Amino acid sequence: MKNFKKITIVLIASFVFSLLASGCGDSVTGSSEPSSESASASEPASSQNPVHEVVIQIPSSAVPAAEPTSEPTSSEAPSAGPSSGDDLSKVIALTFDDGPSTNTPSSTSRILDVLEKYNAKATFFVQGIQLTYAEFKDRNCAIVKREAALGMQIGSHSFDHPDFNKKDAAEIQSQIDKSIQLISDAAGGYDVKIVRTPYGSQKQHVLDAIDMPIILWNIDTMDWDTKDADKTYQAIMDNVKGGSIVLMHDIYQATADAVEMVVPALIEKGYKLVTIDEMFRLYGQELKPHTVYARAKRPE
């Protein structure tokens, strides 16, 4: 009987030791996969060296710990160039002239609502005078500030829209400087980097006078003429392609109506709606002063 008790004590001690060894293994590995780790811990009889089993599990636990640091790197990488993986045949820029609007409700605000809803970007070429009318000054300055806050690009469209082809260099510079100052004041120091000349003026003396890139367009929706949302929508959908710069005017309610239709339609077709700077950066094109750009294309 005494021998039987001794054998029983030995077996119990052995069993307790086995449990302690198993618990130590779990604490060392810190595994996030309990099912696979518990399987290896429950098979000590198949191993000649249980300690070695614990040691070789340490690298395996290090692998999943490293994965989270690599995932955000790829998912957070900005679309900074052609190598980013963007399909350039689906990258376009919507642009709006003459705003912010002086209508009620503000058609510019309606357009911003759509862009914000779909996380899309656009470029607004602002007339400085739109930020000076007493009745609309506070509202329109707030709209320009919102454009900047939403990541839209803001460019100068002169102070009050004269034909630059008929102006001398000093008058052209004054028009641009006045509009840039008003935009900057409204948007908390916003840095205006691009210009769209009124009526698309581009005589040589105009180009010489403007020490900034001059952005025109290759798709004219004629929204200013038709004031028809369906025609504006169709003009875009029938002609859009990668690198397109689309001209619209945010001072018309019909244009806001068109934007409400065209933005989701373009996104559904896989188009990426970006600012002018973003599009040309994606295409690997450097925007240069005194130079006209009507669309983005790959460098020669």
Describe this structure in words.
This protein is α/β, with parallel strands linked by helices and 300 residues long. 49% of the residues lie in helices and 9% in strands. The strands form 2 sheets. Strands 1, 2, 3, 5, 6 and 7 form a 6-stranded parallel β-sheet that branches. A two-stranded parallel sheet has the order 4-8. The longest helix is centred in the N-terminal third of the chain and has 28 residues, at 2-29.
- Low-pLDDT segments, ≥5 res: 1-83
Q: What is the SS-derived class?
A: alpha/beta
Give the distance, in angstroms, between the N- and C-terminal Cα atoms.
97 Å
| Rg over CA atoms | 32 Å
Name the helicity range: 40-55%
The largest sheet, given as strand count, sense and whether it forms a barrel, is: 6 strands, parallel
Q: Roughly what fraction of the amino acids lie in strands?
A: 5-15%
Number of strands: 8
Count of discrete alpha- or pi-helical segments spanning 4 or more residues: 11
Overall shape: globular
The H/E string reads: HHHEHEHEHHEEHHEHEHE
